[in-house]
Design goal:
The protein has 2 domains: about 30 residues, no CATH class; about 325 residues, Cupredoxins -  blue copper proteins (Immunoglobulin-like, Sandwich), CATH 2.60.40. By secondary structure, it is mainly beta. Helix content is about 10%, strand content about 35%. It contains 5 helices and 24 strands. Bound molecules: copper (II) ion (CU).
């Protein structure tokens, strides 16, 4: 086991640790995973083809008018957003290319991985126009790495993480103790998330959210996957309320045909314009634009599911195959606000299948995708 409390010599009020990094009274002597992640302004498209790729049919006129086509007081499918993006080093000049297996992450931030006993370090640079942070779930953090402003009576040195100003940088340190890893009834990996928590509502709806996977100590393959897992997919059932985005006025000005005609009412959900800015997506992609959910019959596939910050309830449904979650078999699960769940599938049914949210309004608004199971390879003699 890498995660253990190390010998410490106490000299007066000074605690001296030997040979590894000190975090409170707990020691972590595993690998340190360093990530360089910036919040960047990006123009995002929820449905670049403006077609329904899950059905292949024409859009219903109401759907087309509400969520697809730009108009005098409709933004369409393109929005300016703030997204977490990974860079190669501390100069933040070169974006780190996403591996093909993770292109399906869409608008989510880069995948952060660690094993129990490791430490995650994130050098965060804020390239956007509002203060932002990185707040993790599950892993350990001291007050200088929580990424959320609260009245907690901590000194100024513990506040720099709360709201990194535009142009600023902060390094978050997140050790990964046993309690961030699998418990008795978990698989050998656990799913967490990170997101900006400076102005939680506006930051997350602007796009600042990403995934994190922690595997059990010693249970990681050289390719980063948990032992015994052939493929992993991460899907965020993600209702985005663009009405509260930091960029909503920018988006109105840039993408509607007549910005003056836009009804900017306070309770926006109840206006046609407000409804059009509730984007029902999977990883920021609607109407079948989430690509890359491809696997082979008989493989052991791990699905990680999450939801976002609004008043959300989702019902992810896999057609064609079943999963095991929490020791039980199903093909529909439920996700509430900010939920994180893990499911295992061993697909036995080749084909292209629907994977979608069963909540009616989400289904109509485009929270739909396809996944493909390729037939088992038959060796030729
Ligand atoms: Cu839903």
């Amino acid at each position: 086991m890498k995660n253990r409390i190390q010998l410490a010599a106490v000299v007066g009020s000074v605690v001296i640790f030997v040979g590894c990094q000190a975090v409170g009274a707990i020691q972590f002597d595993g690998t340190t995973h360093r990530y360089y992640i910036a919040a960047d302004e990006v123009v995002w498209d929820y449905a670049p083809t403006r077609q329904d790729l899950t059905t292949g049919e024409e859009f219903d006129p109401f759907v087309a008018e509400t969520w697809v086509n730009p108009g005098p007081d409709r933004i369409g499918t393109k929005y300016k957003k703030a997204l977490y993006r990974e860079y190669t080093d501390e100069t933040f000049t070169t974006l780190k290319l996403r591996a093909p297996e993770w292109e399906h992450l869409g608008f989510l931030g880069p995948l952060i991985r660690a094993e129990v006993g490791d430490t995650i370090e994130v050098v965060f640079k804020n390239n956007v126009s509002f203060p932002a942070s990185m707040h993790p779930h599950g892993v350990f953090y001291n007050k200088d790495s929580e990424g959320a402003p609260t009245k907690d009576d901590t000194p100024g040195s513990d506040k720099a993480d709360d709201a990194v100003p535009p142009g600023g940088t902060h390094t978050y340190v997140w050790p990964v103790p046993e309690r961030a890893g699998p418990a008795e009834n978990d698989q050998n990996s656990v799913f967490w998330m990170y997101h900006s928590h400076t102005n939680e509502d506006k930051d997350v709806n602007s796009g600042l959210m990403g995934p994190m996977i922690v595997t059990a100590d010693g249970a990681t393959q050289p390719n980063g996957r948990p032992d015994g897992v052939d493929r992993e997919f991460i899907v965020s059932f993600h209702e985005v309320d663009e009405n509260v985005s930091w960029y909503q006025e920018d988006n109105i000005q840039a993408y509607t045909m007549d910005p003056a005609s836009v009804d900017r009412e306070e309770i926006q959900f109840f206006t046609p314009f407000g409804l059009s800015n509730f984007r029902q997506s999977m990883n920021g992609l609607s109407f079948g634009h989430l690509k890359g959910l491809e696997m082979r019959q008989g493989e052991r596939v791990r699905w990680y599911l999450m939801a976002s910050t609004n008043f959300e309830v989702h019902a992810p449904h896999w057609h064609g195959n079943t999963v095991v979650m929490n020791g039980m078999r199903t093909d529909v699960t439920d996700l509430q606000t900010m939920a994180m769940q893990v499911a295992t599938m061993v697909p036995d049914n080749p084909g292209t299948w629907l994977f979608h949210c069963h909540v009616r309004d989400h289904l109509i608004g485009g929270m739909t995708s396809l996944y493909t199971v390729l037939p088992v390879e038959v060796s030729s003699r």
